[in-house]
Give the backbone structure.
Amino acid sequence: MKPPSNRQIDALIRELSAAQLAGDAFNQYAPGDANNVIRRSNLRLYLRAMAARRPRTLLVMEAPGYRGCRLTGVPVTSRKVLLEGLPALNMFGRDAGFRDVADAGFERVYGEQSATIVWSALAGLGALPLIWNTFPFHPHQAGKADSNRKPRAAEIALGAEFLVRLLAIWDFEQLIAVGNVAHETLQHLRLDCDKLRHPAHGGKRDFVAGLRSLMSVGA
C-alpha cells in the first residue's frame, strides 16, 4: 500500500477541523482562529514528513494535553520539541517550517513531560513511528483551558472514527497502544496491538523499557 497522498492528508485535516465538540473540549484545528491555521499547518507538515518516511508502526496515545498538542497541533509534541527539533531523528524544528502560536494565557508553556519522555525514547532508539491520539482534540476541565481530563466515552467513539480514517489511508505492520484508553479503543475496533504503560504518573521506566522491546530501528 502506498503512503497517503497530500490530498488524503489534507482531507483528513479538513475533517478534523470540522468536528463539533462539547464546551469542555477544544478543537485546535477548527476554522476562525489564526492560531489554529498554524496548528493545521504544523499537523500537515508532520503527516507529510511521516508519509515520506513510510513508518511501519503506529503509536496510539490518549488525547492532547494543554502543554503539548493543544498548542502545537502535532500529537504528543510540545513547543520545545516542535521548535528546537530532534536532530537524532531529523524531525521538526523551525528550519523545517514548523511554527509557534500565540494563544493568550499559554505564553509560558513550553515543554510537556509526556512529549519529552516519548520523543527522547524514540530518539535514543533511532525509531520513528507515526504518533496519533485516540481522541485527537484537547479535553479539559470546564472553564479551565489550561487543564487536562480523560476523554469521555462519546469522545473516544468520535476519536475512533478518525483513527479508522487514518488506518484507511495508511498501512502499518504494528499497532502499539499507550495506556488503557488507547488499548481499549483498539480492542473495540478488533485491531491487534501491543500495549505499553502510559509514561505519565510514574510510568516512564516501564514505558521506555516496553518501547525498547517492541520497536525496531527505523519503525
Notes: Residues 135 and 161 are 9 Å apart (CA to CA). Strands lie at 25-26, 57-61, 130-133, 138-139, 174-178, 194-196.
